[in-house]
Amino acid sequence: MDAEKENKKDVGSSEEEKRDKESYREERIEKTGQVTLDENGENQDIHLLSIIGEVEGHENLSGNAKTTKYEHVLPQLAAIEDSNRIKGVLVILNTMGGDVEAGLAIAEMLASMSKPTVSLVLGGSHSIGVPIAVSTDYSYIVKTGTMVIHPVRMNGMVIGAPQTFDYFRQIQDRITGFVCDHCRIKKKMLEQLMMETGVLTKDVGTILVGEEAVKYGIIDEVGGITHAIKKLHQMIDSGNADN
Fold first, then answer.
1. Given 127, 139, 182, 233, which residue is catalytic?
2. CB 58 within 8 A of CB 105
3. Gap between the Cα atoms of 100 and 98, Å rounded
């Protein structure tokens, strides 16, 4: 009887732990859009990072806006790099772009990680989302996913025009340089796509859909979540074999 009671106690405790873990996962997803995928048969913990809505910079956006806060993302990536448990990072993107400095900071952080990283473009990865998408070791885009390539935009009154335009040119060079360093597209072609006038209404730039992003050498392959996770496990296995 005592053994039976102990077994029931252990089962109850186990179920309670599962409920607590699931509750924590749901809360973490709701607050940060991040979760650790740790129930796979490979025994390889993967961190899921979502870049959604607008990448928020130093100023808070409207409470009604879907945002990715870089001050949440950067410390988390540092913790992942320092973790012995987490073996890889999966980045899912559905973003309209946002703050250039914040987006580049996230992209640079991902590009400098020693652990395998894979990105997956879903609805879209526009503007500063492009450097983030190409910053990983391997990248995917779904067939209906879009990428908008355009130059840095300026809003409002420009004071000290020559200096301001030079500053924006430097920003543009940083973005194009980063993108070209982390994918197969050449700078001349990227700049040509940025300055296209016949695609976007009342704006310059180019929309690339699915296979087009692969054809231009920005994204590695068309695929979905199954392909991305499988690729990441393969990269983790390969790294373990090398060690």
1. 127
2. no
3. 6
Query: Which two tokens mark 242?
Result: 């090398």
Residue 160, C-beta contacts closer than 8 angstroms, at least 6 positions apart: none
* Annotated active-site residue in 47, 126, 150, 182: 150
Return the residue matching tokens 């199954």. 226
150 catalytic per annotation: yes
**Could you tell me how many helices (H) and strands (E) the chain has, helices first?**
8, 9
- 182 in catalytic set: no
Residue with tokens 């609805």, as numbered in its chain: 123
pLDDT tens for the 243 residues of the chain, in order: 555 555 544 545 555 654 554 554 455 545 555 656 665 555 578 899 999 888 887 776 666 667 778 888 899 999 999 999 899 999 999 998 888 888 999 999 999 999 999 999 998 999 899 999 999 999 999 999 999 998 876 554 455 556 566 777 788 889 999 999 999 999 999 989 988 877 765 677 889 999 999 999 999 999 999 999 999 999 999 876 665
